């Protein structure tokens, strides 16, 4: 039979053990909550960054869109020039019409391809990101931002070429 001291000693040890495990459980609980809060914070941060990326993609798109109408108009001017090549030769007998024709055909191709590239990008762009992980959305939007920036560069080059060719023949 155990003495009262042994019993008290065992009781104290048992209480200490339970108390220590309670602290460990509480620490684990707080650690879990902390990890959850940090991951939610990171998720919100990623969502905010994704929203900003999408706004930037749309802003670049919106800066390009007005040029599409300009390109359609320039394409009509080029078509008119190509169909009136004989009249141009009569007005400017020293004009190299074969060189001009090639230049106009190249410009017309560039105008058409640039507009088609923008149309294709718009049809393929997906502004909805439901059921996707924020990391997937982030990667997608970064790719789209690069693609639309390349399109912007293509638009700028085509616009400069168009202005140069049409200004050479004083067509506004």
Structural description of this entry:
This protein is mainly alpha-helical. Helices cover 87% and strands 0% of the residues. It contains 4 helices and no strands. It has helices spanning 4-83, 85-91, 97-124, 134-168. Helix 3 runs antiparallel to helix 4 (134-168). The longest helix is centred in the N-terminal third of the chain and has 80 residues, at 4-83.
Give short descriptive properties of this protein.
mainly alpha, 4 helices
Write a brief structural summary.
The chain has 172 residues and is mostly helical. It has helices at residues 4-83, 85-91, 97-124, 134-168.
Major beta sheet summary: none
Q: Give the SSE order as H and E letters.
A: HHHH
Mean pLDDT: 83
Pairing-aware structural class of the strands and helices? mainly alpha
Overall form? rod-shaped
Query: What is the tally of beta strands?
Result: 0
Measure the end-to-end span: 113 Å
Oligomer: single chain
Number of helices: 4
Rg over CA atoms: 35 Å
Low-pLDDT runs of 5+ residues are none
Percent in helix: over 70%
User: Strand portion, in percent?
Assistant: under 5%
């Amino acid at each position: 039979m155990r003495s009262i001291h042994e019993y008290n000693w065992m009781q104290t040890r048992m209480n200490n053990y339970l108390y220590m495990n309670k602290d460990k459980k509480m620490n684990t609980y707080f650690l879990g909550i902390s990890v959850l809060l940090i991951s939610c914070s990171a998720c919100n941060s990623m969502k905010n960054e994704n929203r900003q990326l999408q706004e930037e993609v749309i802003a670049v798109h919106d800066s390009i869109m007005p040029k599409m109408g300009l390109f359609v108009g320039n394409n009509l001017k080029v078509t008119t020039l190509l169909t009136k090549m004989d009249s141009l030769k009569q007005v400017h007998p020293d004009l190299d019409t074969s060189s001009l024709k090639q230049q106009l055909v190249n410009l017309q191709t560039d105008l058409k391809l640039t507009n088609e590239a923008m149309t294709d990008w718009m049809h393929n762009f997906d502004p909805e990101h439901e059921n996707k992980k924020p990391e997937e959305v982030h990667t997608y939007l970064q790719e789209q931002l690069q693609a639309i920036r390349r399109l912007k560069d293509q638009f700028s080059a085509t616009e400069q070429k168009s202005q140069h060719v049409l200004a050479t023949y004083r067509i506004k």
